[in-house]
Amino acid sequence: MQAPVHHIVGYTSILRERLLPIPGTVLARLNQKVSPNDVIAEANWAREHVLLNVARTLGVSPNAADRLIKCKADDRLAASAEIAVGKGLFPRSVTAQREGRVVVVGGGQVLMEVGESKMELRAGISGTVIEIIPNRGAVIQTAGALVQGVWGNGRIDSGLLANLIEQPDGVLTAGRLDVSMRGFVILGGMVKDAEALKSAADLPVRGLILSSLYPSLIPQAREMRYPIIVIDGFGSLPMNSAAYKLLSTNVKREATVNAEARDRYSGACPEIIIPLPVSAVPPAPREVETFAPGLQVRMRRPPAMGLLGSIVAVKPGLTTLLSGLRAPAAEVKLENGETVIAPLINLEVVG
Amino acid sequence: MASSLVDGNSILAVDVGAASTRAVMFDVVEGEYRFVASGIAPSTAEAPFKDVSEGVRNAIINLQEILGKSLLDGSRDLITPSQPNGSGVDGMVVTISAGPTIKAVLVGLLKDVSLESARRLTESTYARIVETIGLNDRRKPEQQIDSILRIQPDLIVITGGTDGGASRSIQKLLEPIGLASFILPAEKVPAVLFAGNEKITGEVKSLIGSFAPALHTSPNVRPSLETEDLEPAQSELARMVVNIRKRQIKGVDLLDLWSGGHLLPTAYATGRMVRFLAKVYSAEKGILSIDLGASAAVISAGFKNKFTLGVYPQFGLGENLAGLLNYTTLEDILRWSPLDISEGVLRDYLYQKALYPSTIAATKEDLALSQAVARQALYLAMQSARRDFPRTASRLKPTLTPLFEPILTGGGALSDASRPGQSLLMLLDSLQPVGVTTVILDQNNLLPLLGAAAAQNNILPVQVIESGAFLSVGTVIVPVVSASYGIPILRSTLTYENGSEARVDLKYGSLESLPLSSGETGNLEIQCLRGADVGFGPGRGGTISVTGGALGVVFDGRGRPLNLPADAVRRRELIKKWNWTLGGE
Question: What pTM was computed for the model?
Fold first, then answer.
């Protein structure tokens, strides 16, 4: 049976597509070396629209109004610019209420987009641009450590990594965040109260890497302007030993925290990338494995949820579980020495 | 491409679910269609595969191993028609429920008329209504445009105006739809269904057709104020959903090709089957079908003159699970648990399970949690579905579930339960049926596949159903009565084919069962006490013929609506006892 792979890799080749959500201008060049904060593409985005009913305002038919309208699609109009003037001794006029661009004209109406703002797309990671995607963005290649998470608050930033927990089951409290942590990406364990999130925002930090988060804190976490990544899940889960070991041995290195929302269909996944010096480009991580003895796996459901282990044997046929359900299963030796029978569907390969 | 199914013998039916893909073989055995075997593989709609055809091929390969014959050639393409060497298949049908929830915007005139019809229509597929634009909407057109641009819906459903009725009001509502479609990038333009006043279909096409290339029209869902006819629009919507899936997920177009265009949304195919059965077995009672899976809870009911289909992604047990708390409380979910589990543990469970929808319960505590959640999700889905059941449906009390015969159940949560008793108790708790009914478990999730095949070959579904491909759980007797706990409410004697007898004295608040194996029949004499009603009238009894099943004849005397004891310890003890009565632990 094919197995999903959860990436916790010390040194690997990483390709990431960085795209504008709407068409724009790509600023990056092919083979350009980029840093996380470099703007690689930008787009103008109008937040609002204004529909001006010229025919009704001037009291004429739509066709007559179309003949009176002075602007056309794509025209840029200043605020108060005249759009149409009626006829008669005291003609009424229609003007642009706000500065904007004419989207379409017709049927006696004018649709304008207003409130334009510039959207900038940053590289997010250090690396080399290996492909330009016209009008949308670029593909950046780097090499280094990669740790995937299960939840992100949609932000991205980078900074030097600092560790505030001594053990994988450490808890990050507000008291542990002092001014010396300003501008760092914090490896922080579990968060159980909103104070810790707020203190991190007050400093501010460049990112929080958590083992787990209380579900009740998700709304506050989404509000934070710095990236938050949850590595293992919700509730009081310690960080899995592989992620903890990898992250805690990379302190003081630059880490990019891309806390993008998980999308099971596109494959988007929150992740931490720690670029490392390259002598030769390492292989990319595997995306799919086949369950087999010796593979390192992570338990995604009880028993031993979150623990790592290695497959001792894949059971033939269907196995009756403690719950009474029958499913394809494997015998897994956990890192704590215990051996459990787990359904294959509850396992993911770590690598 | 697959040849016509009418002339074919063997039919390969594939269901692409959110978690699993099943490949099922129907073939002619001794002159009649039979369910032969099924193969299963994890679905591959999601990353890293992002191609449903991979999971379909894996499921077919699994089926090949069971059948001992080839269905795919060396290039992993379908062999069709059947070859003289026994390889291949004559026809193929496909159903699909995998894919992200479709974001839908409703546009209509009046809240209680056309918008209500639009809601019912949209809830017949895997969609979530994210915006409603109606005649009473006080927003400016540009605000409606901005809302559509922000949401970027996959689907817009427009209804309104009786045939020959309002036209100007509808045209006014179309303006923001057309302009928003004009502004959106080509790949984001939503599919639009117009199912309103048929007299203005031409104008609708000229107004928004050039901006929304995926504009579909169907007969009016509300031809007159008093009449609602969703069926033609549901059919059109089903085809649109397939097209949306083709755009969203790689491999769907290949499956459409393999099946010769016989690809349907799973819920629509299930509904078609229920409608078909309601016509074939036209009876006083309705037919009810329940499917509780990862992508949605699907409830379909066929009555004499009406058919309803409700798809509720918000009550699915997959990625939307964390959102269940928008509709219920932790306390209401935990009332169904036989184990003492804290609200915090349940909350963590909901969020964790949403991360990994395809995972299953491996421990007893995890199973208790998952079944408590399944009960509440199905309970809520049933409450939603009941809004659309016809008032004329046969009932014992206006506030209770209508009478159904049979109740067909499927979906991961119900068919994967470790014992049939667990499945039945989940159904009794959440659906709360009344009177006399038969509960049938669709262990292999055949119902939608039969529905997909029915349009091409109407003999196949009937013969497969009558061949015993479904597991009969048993006959259920649920008296409606008002009594105190422990008071006798019903006496019954079951006379077996060999003349032997078994008796039960049902007390209020208890569950009892009498054995009657699958395939056996018996005569059940029912004596109602204290005004209890099982369908013969209050306090009146009678004798009925019953068929057996895995649990025989089950008597549910726990009252309707089911009120669980407020005391948590007593409630948990009772739930354990009820589980035990039905063969659980």
Answer: 0.91
